[in-house]
Amino acid sequence: MLSFSIPSAAPVGCPKYTANLVVLYVNAAPNDGAVGTVGTVVNITVRVAYPDGTPAVLSPAKMSFLWIGNSSCLVFQNVTVLPTRELGVYQYNQTITCISNQTATTTGLQTSYSFASATTSCNQTGCFPSGLVRIYVMECGCADAVGNYGPIGNMGSDETLTLDDNSIIQIGATTSIPSGSTGAYSAYMVPILIIILAAVAVLLAVARLRKRGK
Asked: Are 104 and 38 in contact, with CB atoms under 8 Å apart?
């Protein structure tokens, strides 16, 4: 297992006894098997509450996120999150701008990606990690107006008690067909199949007529 050097996201004055905010839900989309590539917008939804379940209002409306992949990690510290119509639920959109340690080699229709050796730095200036990427709200990565911070540890979907959240996404394909290739082949193959079927039907009809004429 890789050991990353992760910078602390905790604000100044965030002792454990003030960590009274709980992250109940962390979900990232797309997480339905779609592969994130450069330009993909990842939407992260987080539910924050107090230990008794009361929804929490963040002030300022900021969070810190940790993304951990196969060979690298990335931190977004104190980014602005947007409140939703549901109290205590916030959303954050992040566009994938580049993918770390990825070199693409195209042969025909197939594009293979190779990855460099693992890195141990984790900061806000690098590219996005590749492979299965787990997204966490960082320890003490959010706060309310009266000095309560949370969560008490990095929280992703594996750490919450909610069953229907999923903060694990796939970034960077190992093997793929270049965009547009499948559609182009489909566009050509359908008319060709129609022509072939029509030709077969004509030949069968001619054969039947010849048979009847004998």
From this structure: no
CA dist., res. 183 & res. 153, Å (int)? 45
DSSP-assigned beta bridge partners for residue 155? 137
State which amino acid sits at residue 193: L
What pLDDT shows up at residue 180? 40
Q: What is the DSSP letter of 203?
A: H
Report the alpha-carbon distance of residue 162 to residue 88 in Å, rounded: 15
Which residue in the block uniquely carries the two structure tokens 């990095």?
A: 154
pLDDT band (50, 70, 90) for residue 73: confident
Residues 189 and 163: their CA atoms lie apart, in Å, by 43
pTM over 0.70: no
Beta-bridged to residue 149, according to DSSP, are 143
DSSP 8-state symbol, 18: G
Residue 38 exposure: Cα atoms within 13 Å on the Cβ side: 8
What gap in Å lies between CA 24 and CA 47, rounded to an integer?
Answer: 5
Strands of the 122-123 sheet, one edge to the other: 35-36, 168-171, 131-137, 62-68, 73-80, 122-123
Q: Which residue from 32, 1, 25, 36 is spatially nearest to 156, judged by alpha carbons?
A: 25
Q: What are the residue ranges spanned by the domains of the chain?
A: 16-176, 180-214
Q: 110 φ, ψ to 5°?
A: -95, 135
Closest CA to 136 of 151, 148, 149: 151
Average pLDDT of every residue of the chain:
76
